Amino acid sequence: MKLNEQQKKIVELKEEKNALFLVHNYQIPEIQVLADYMGDSLGLCREAQKVEDKDLIVFCGVDFMAETAAILNPDKKVILPSHQACCPMAAMLPTSQLKKAKKNHPGIPVVLYVNTLAEAKAEATVTCTSANAAEIVRKLDSEEVLFGPDSNLAYYVRNQVPDVNLIVVPEGGHCNVHRFIGKGEEALELKKKYPESELWAHPECEPELQDLADYILSTGGMVRRARESDAETFIVGTEVGLIERLKREHPDKRFLPAKEHAVCAAMKRIGLDNLYLSLVNAAPEVRVDEDIASRARDAIELMLELSS
Ligand code: 13P
Ligand code: SF4
């Protein structure tokens, strides 16, 4: 993609400020192409953990992702270009509710999806992402696990690790975008039209769609599968931003959304205008109280340690 004038200015400022751009796969293509690193939540955590020689981390994603980068980099400034880039799922598990659940189920490990706020992560034994949730639960080697907040990710983990009793908190936690993608009616129509295609579902998708899928993958897993697979057509059960990336990287393959218009409004709060302004002002900064950060850091670092 040829850069426009605004993108060129952003690149200049990025160099001037010695900034690192960490970009999630759901960002708009104009921002994707400016990334120093682009990936899924796990890849972004790993990148954030090894930042050394940068003065500023600019996170193009949503609140919980930027908070995680700030927790892993207490001595660095992390900015999120929009105050409104907030994942609704991350707000579905209030810390008070998690504490109550811990009281009702004392002594069992707490595995929290990274799509939670820092305060909740501070109450977790370990975090997980869509890429490693099953692996983390398996490696804890516990008969019972308190797990939250995504009930569809819990469905996926239960299928992968059936011996572990997953107690899910809150009831019905979900991603509205993946819920919108639905149970697979449109995907089945596409499968009929393209019988040789691969159907992918993100673990945040509804159980019915997961059951129909050939592969259940994180967004990073989808990027890898697109490289490895010999298929020509893919029906993609996740947010549209990832499909833009896949089309750019594989112009010879066909990527069809499992449902049209599955757009994450929170991710789309970041655009070139507020990205430019955030660099000029080095704001808005993401700050996490060190008391909370130090406990949340333990849970995130344990995830990175356990994750292959
Ligand atoms: P990934 O970690 O698979 O990119 O998922 C993040 C997310 O928020 C999906 O909705
Ligand atoms: Fe949150 Fe869903 Fe958007 Fe992911 S796609 S950031 S889970 S609202």
Strand order of the largest sheet: 2-1-3-4
What is the residue-mean pLDDT, rounded to a whole number? 98
* SS element count, helices: 15
Largest sheet: 4 strands, parallel
Q: Catalogue the ligands.
A: 1,3-dihydroxyacetonephosphate, iron/sulfur cluster
Give the fraction of residues assigned to helices.
40-55%
Number of individual domains: 3
CATH class of the largest domain: Alpha Beta
CATH architecture of the largest domain: 3-Layer(aba) Sandwich
Instruction: Briefly note the structural class of the backbone.
Output: alpha/beta
Shape: globular
Low-pLDDT parts are none
CATH superfamily of the largest domain: NadA-like
Quick summary of this structure?
The chain has helices at residues 5-16, 29-32, 41-49, 63-72, 95-104, 118-121, 133-140, 151-160, 176-181, 185-193, 207-212, 219-228, 240-249, 272-281, 290-306; strands spanning 19-24, 37-39, 56-60, 77-79, 110-113, 126-128, 144-148, 165-168, 198-201, 215-216, 233-237, 254-257.
